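#struct-help
A.M.: can someone run this one for me? Single chain, 113 residues.
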Amino acid sequence: MGSVSVEDIDVDFLALIYDIIKCVERENTESAQAKRSEFQESSQKIQEFHRKLDVTRDQIRKLPGIDYSKEDQIKKLEALRKQLVLKKKLLQKYKDMCALEGVKQYLNPSNAN
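D.P.: on it. Structure tokens below:
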């Protein structure tokens, strides 16, 4: 698997944690036979939780830009903001030019191309 986006990462651990807590609570209130069964179930839930954590860690390591330092990220963000400002100015200039062309054609319809 190549690049991963933040939206692709499943960080919903609450249900697994709840299941583990439920199993542990049942272990405390049941007989010895039931406790063994619940212990196995809770062990399985904990292993599942660990697997999910490992998968999430691996996915996070694959996120683009995760290897940049904070300073590099700030520099990149500033550069992107400058680009955005320049592009907005360019778009506004283009819109103004188009608006002027429309006004010119409206005022002088005989010179329409």
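A.M.: thanks! The chain has three helices and no strands.
D.P.: also worth noting: Helices lie at 14-29, 32-61, 70-107.
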